């Protein structure tokens, strides 16, 4: 998080307001299919029924020569998968920088709108809940069902594949550099390795303990389990076991050439990679939290830790000393994230708080976003138009997608159970893992996929 002293960014819609929005749409008989470079007012409200619509169904015009492949329904999802070719000799990032304004944290198709027709052929809003009969494949109402027959609503993203195999909640997702494999960890005490070309599971690794978190750094994959961290080098197939944690390892992150792990007893352990011996040596133990550390992120020269004690601690990466404790949340701080000069945090208290530095250098809340349910995890990325998007998982089995800095909703993802892991990938891909053990692969699209409402 690149903090500018005293900065107070105004949270407003990117691109500025649309002038005379009530008058420029659906008020004339122009049927030209060429799009006017203004954003459709009714599309923003979610109820445009003109196809083709002469106004933009996106916040910004499409990029020059921009295009994206639509995900197929087959098993693979790697038609535009790209990997980093840089080397890695320790816990320093060598993955492509998909989004340079985001800090580094631990860890059937979509779209289509949310309206349908009743038996009387009158439009009605769909209930924001996935149809249980549709999930089982035997809903008799078809398109007339008042519940969703889709895993998502919204435009510009689509589900590419669904990976089945885990028996319990998916708690971590990782994509190592120079690898065509996706790693997923679960509380079923296994890590599964998936082939990105075929979408098939290649290996099931038994760990003998629940996976609390998983990250990758270059060619390394780190898995947090009770009382240990497993480290795998995907190039040499070597495996290391880092001991020292007390209880479950809930969160990990890499910063300043150190691997940090947040543990159940409230401490944060740090290891440094020794290239000569190809080992990770204990470097420090950061203490201060009174309950488990469940989220970590690195930004600027700071480590931020969210805890079950309802606080966020800010640590200087050079001295490893705590320089501030943030206590604005009233429940567990489930996830912390850096974006631009801001720190974002979410909690089971149903809020997302946006923090910015004051002239003194301390962080204070500059904006609070309220949800109807407790929040579980945050993930930041850019869409194909380079717009920053925040994904927020809630404990009502949904994931909300928001434009930043406006917090305008872009869409919603639904799951059988809570989504506990979200991970961005290359080529417009991102991944979600839920409590039912399902891993879904999603892709951002360059053009709107809106259909008739």
UniProtKB/TrEMBL annotation:
Claim: Zinc-finger is one of the keywords in the record: yes
SUPFAM superfamilies xref list: CCCH zinc finger (SSF90229), WD40 repeat-like (SSF50978)
Domain C3H1-type residue range list: 34-60, 125-152
PROSITE patterns recorded: WD_REPEATS_1, WD_REPEATS_2, WD_REPEATS_REGION, ZF_C3H1
Compositionally skewed regions (Gly residues) per UniProt: 105-114
Biased composition (Low complexity): 78-97
Keyword Glycoprotein attached: no
GO MF, any single term: zinc ion binding
Name of this protein: C3H1-type domain-containing protein
Gene transcribed to yield this protein: LOC115959833
